[in-house]
Design brief:
The protein is mostly helical and 84 residues long. It has helices at residues 4-16, 21-33, 35-67, 71-83. Helix 1 (4-16) crosses helix 2 (21-33), helix 1 runs parallel beside helix 3 (35-67) and helix 2 (21-33) packs across helix 3.
Length: 84
């Protein structure tokens, strides 16, 4: 049986890459019995999700900033649209 310290390391590794079947089964067995390690895993999954959401939001904001037009470009567009 793996220790809690080993399980937390494996849980962290599993967030980055898939674990081999034998290790996944060992982690699953330990998590089914240890509520503290289960809570650690749940917290890690929440953190991963929130970080992913934040990175996605930051990426969208950066893209929207890149699309902004200069004042001169806005004026040219207004001028062209008012002609029509």
């Amino acid at each position: 049986m793996l220790t809690c310290k080993e399980i937390t390391q494996l849980v962290s590794e599993s967030l980055d890459r898939p674990l081999p079947l034998r290790k996944r089964v060992s982690v699953w067995m330990h998590l089914s019995m240890c509520r503290l390690c289960s809570a650690f895993r749940r917290d890690q999954l929440v953190l991963k999700e929130r970080i992913s959401d934040e990175l996605e939001r930051a990426s969208r904001e950066k893209m929207s900033e890149e699309v902004k037009l200069s004042a001169a470009a806005k004026q040219r567009m207004k001028k062209e649209l008012s002609k029509r």
